[in-house]
Design goal:
The strands form 3 sheets. This protein has a 6-stranded antiparallel beta sheet, sandwiched between helices. Strands 1-2-3 form a 3-stranded antiparallel beta sheet, with no helix packed on it. Helix 6 (165-173) crosses helix 8. The chain is elongated, with a radius of gyration of 23 Å. It starts with a strand and ends in a 17-residue tail after the last helix. The protein has 2 domains: 2-92, Arc Repressor Mutant, subunit A (Orthogonal Bundle); 105-282, GAF domain (Beta-Lactamase, 2-Layer Sandwich). The chain is of the alpha+beta class. 40% of the residues lie in helices and 20% in strands.
């Protein structure tokens, strides 16, 4: 139960044993206040870094004082946290916990399966969704293609980070810790096309980040290629990869514009179903010849 107590020089709300400062300023319509709060959270998630009051105000087209009041409220409730050195705001523990609880209640395979079928029907190739693990990328589910001869990967297969399109997506868009660990490790050679040096892998990952997709042309098995794209959750964290798999006869080293657009769009659709709102920085580049 809430109670109002007087305290100089401002009013203080006492709620559930905590003293909450009243932020001075003009009253704000409730619906507008909620809408701005949601826009603040969405903007912070898209930025994937700490953001200051001025940047918030400029991005959301409102005043710094109005933004400040909302930031203070969100911080007081644990949804945001303020960096002491820069005074910028980042995602707080309560929002992280809430996101994890929502994520735990979502079955990514159930969410992705209809999208994988649509992708298969659009292109005809074997489609697959995979999850990032410590030692590589694990295939969670797959939909067979329309080809008479089926070419794909088994459910449960663990794909190496450096020798698969899915693995390179995980390294390019995943955690810095994993990327550094893989780059320091011995890169097993599976075929003459496997990337075997850390320097070459770093260059490849830069290209993958820039274009938003990856291929594994002959890298794990001669004659096989995969085109993969990243799947993000509501916090902007990489949670899976979506890919199409087929013979190099049907997915060349540089995939067609249609193959890239459909695969990236499928990954984006699953990301959206998980609550992700992409920024322009994560949009994919198609080949210039597409």
């Amino acid at each position: 139960m809430s109670s109002l107590v007087l305290a100089a020089p401002a009013l203080i709300w006492r709620q559930r044993g905590r003293l909450m400062p009243r932020i001075a300023g003009p009253p704000e319509d409730g619906v507008q206040a909620v809408a701005l709060t949601l826009r603040i959270l969405e903007h912070l998630v898209r930025e994937r870094r700490a953001v200051g009051v001025t940047s918030f105000a400029q991005a959301l087209g409102t005043t710094k004082s109005r933004i400040f009041r909302h930031l203070q409220t969100l911080t007081a409730h644990g949804y945001l946290a303020q960096e002491p050195e820069t005074e910028r705001y980042q995602i707080g523990p309560r929002l992280i916990s809430l996101g994890r609880q929502v994520s735990d209640n979502l079955d990514i395979v159930d969410i992705a399966t209809p999208v994988l079928r649509q992708l298969r029907d659009a292109l005809g190739h074997y489609t697959v969704i995979s999850q990032v693990e410590h030692d590589g990328v694990r295939v969670l589910a797959a939909i067979s293609g329309h080809s008479v001869v089926e070419i794909g990967v088994k459910r449960g297969s663990l794909l190496l980070y450096h020798a698969s399109a899915q693995g390179k997506i995980a390294l390019a868009f995943g955690s810095e810790e994993t990327r550094r660990r893989v780059l320091r490790s011995r890169l097993e050679i599976l075929t003459p096309f496997t990337i075997a040096s850390a320097a070459a892998l770093e260059l490849e990952l830069e290209r993958v980040r820039r274009q938003g997709w990856a291929v594994g042309f002959n890298e794990s098995l001669i004659g096989l290629n995969t085109l993969a794209a990243p799947v993000f959750d509501a916090t902007g964290m990489l949670v899976a990869t979506v890919g199409i798999v087929d013979s190099i006869q049907f997915i060349p080293e540089t995939p067609s514009g249609d193959q890239i657009r459909e695969t990236v769009a499928a990954a984006a659709q699953i990301s959206e179903l998980l609550g992700h709102h992409p920024s322009s920085a994560t949009r994919a580049e198609a080949p210039a010849s597409a």
